[in-house]
Amino acid sequence: MPYLPRGVAQPLELVKSLNALQPFLPPAVVNWRYTIDNDWSGDPSLFFWITLSDEAAKPQKLPKITKDVTGVITQHINPRAHWDLIPYVSFRSQSEQAALKEEVFG
User: Fold this and answer.
1) Does the residue 52 lie in any domain?
2) Are 10 and 51 in contact (CB under 8 A)?
3) Tens digits of per-residue pLDDT, 53-101?
4) Residue 27 contacts residue 68 (beta carbons within 8 Å)
5) Which tens digits make up the pLDDT trace of 1-48?
6) 61: which of 11, 29, 76, 93 is 20 to 30 A away, CA to CA?
7) What is the DSSP secondary structure assignment for residue 103, as one 8-state letter?
8) How many Cα atoms are found within 13 Å in the side-chain-facing hemisphere of 40?
């Protein structure tokens, strides 16, 4: 019988945990989305798309805010340890999102 990661086997519990992240995210996070899918190698993964304010996305601030956001994700849900999912986190600024007009990012 194939192995089913907890995040895939218990999607409602995972969604509850993910929704509970919102109050812990820094104010610089303008919007965020996630999906559960397989990565390029077929491993079950949790993909996050984070839209940051333009101020937070400035080069001098970006390292700290990305560390803070990934820290919140790891501390509160720990995708790899608790849900058996590999986390992938992508960041984009509000102005980048507006210029690209893509739906992928929040």
Assistant:
1) yes
2) no
3) 999 999 999 999 999 999 999 999 999 999 999 999 999 999 998 888 7
4) no
5) 677 899 999 999 999 999 999 999 999 999 999 999 999 999 999 999
6) 76
7) S
8) 1
Dihedral sign, Cα of residue 60, residue 30, residue 7, residue 68: positive
Domain that holds residue 33: 6-100
Q: What six digits make up the tokens of 34?
A: 């996630």
DSSP secondary structure of 14-51 = HHHHHHTTGGGS-TTEEEEEEEEEE-TTS-EEEEEEEE
Give the count of domains, the chain. Answer: 1
Domain assignment present for residue 40? The answer is yes
CA gyration radius, the chain: 14
Give the torsion sign (CA, 61, 65, 37, 2): positive
**Cα 49 to the center of its chain, rounded Å:** 5
Entry pTM:
0.89
Identity at 82, one-letter amino acid code: H
- Return the CATH number at 53: 3.30.70
* Domain-embedded: residue 106: no
